[in-house]
Specification:
The protein has about 270 residues and is an alpha+beta fold. It has 7 helices and 10 strands. The protein binds zinc ion.
Length: about 270
């Protein structure tokens, strides 16, 4: 499932290709992607609009239009956004759900095998409400150890389940929670309110380092995720514990274990992570 580094990679590739372009036409191949009731209005509202900015908030990609509306794209499980620099006839149609033609002859293709992805047009107040429901961006300077400690404090849930909670911190999912907790030497099952200030500092640094390295390697392709150019991410080659059950820990003599936390497979080293 695409998390912050994957969506950030797609954003960085799409921004130069899309910004300033106008959307000449939209084709909805699967109404589920825009919500069936919205399909007719969607095409009308998007046609002829210019893209003023491409951004990201948490795991959402946001395409700002000159009408003031925001096209919010959420990849969810298996969504994929590809900048198609070719005629529509040559575009791969397998699992294609939505296609936007741009005025330079290229297009934006939204693929989704399992059909959980969404493309919605939001009014400014609706968009603001959505962003408000999300926690802080972990790569922003204002996301500090003190702030993280405050989030963890007073909550008894396992620290990993808090890292996954989008209303507390935006953009972290299963992969980067496991990898950051390993780098910080913190057991994912630890009650959050037992994390000390010093540990919160280690965890804050680990979160930022893990996300930054993953962005540098264009995300993790463990399943269907691809960049906007159709390439695989490379961060999965550097996983230290995630999906490495039974393998030797990269830093001690222990073995990576798998447990379930908040319904998610969780990988960690019981001797390094206390
Ligand atoms: Zn270890």
């Amino acid at each position: 499932m695409p998390e912050l580094p994957e969506v950030e990679t797609v954003k960085r590739q799409l921004a130069p290709a899309l910004t300033g372009r106008s959307i000449t036409r939209a084709r909805i191949l699967d109404p589920l992607i825009v919500a069936p009731a919205a399909a007719a209005g969607f095409k009308k509202k998007i046609r002829g609009r210019q893209i003023t900015e491409v951004g990201r908030r948490g795991k959402y990609l946001k395409v700002e239009l000159d009408s003031g509306l925001t096209l919010v794209l959420h990849l969810r499980m298996t969504g994929r956004l590809i900048h198609a620099d070719m005629p529509y006839n040559s575009v791969n149609k397998r699992h294609l759900r939505l296609y936007l033609w741009l005025d330079d002859g290229s297009g934006l293709a939204f693929y989704d095998q399992r059909r959980f992805g969404k493309a919605v047009l939001l009014e400014p107040t609706q968009a603001a409400a959505l962003w408000e429901r999300l926690g802080p961006e972990p790569l922003e300077r204002s996301f500090s150890a003190v702030r993280l400690h405050r989030i963890l404090n007073g909550r008894q849930r396992p620290v990993k389940s808090l890292l996954l909670d989008q209303s507390l911190i935006a953009g972290i999912g299963n992969i980067y929670a496991d990898e950051a907790l390993f780098r910080a030497g913190i057991n994912p099952a630890r009650p959050a309110n037992r994390i000390s200030a010093a540990e919160a500092q280690r965890l804050c640094r680990a979160i930022k380092q893990t996300l930054r390295s993953a962005i540098r390697l264009e995300g993790s392709s463990v399943d269907t995720y691809r960049t906007a150019r159709g390439a695989r991410g490379r961060f999965q080659k550097t996983f230290r514990v995630h999906r490495r059950e039974g393998e030797p820990c990269p830093t001690c003599d222990g073995t990576v274990k798998k447990i379930r936390i908040a319904g998610r497979s969780t990988y960690f080293c019981p001797s390094c992570q206390r």
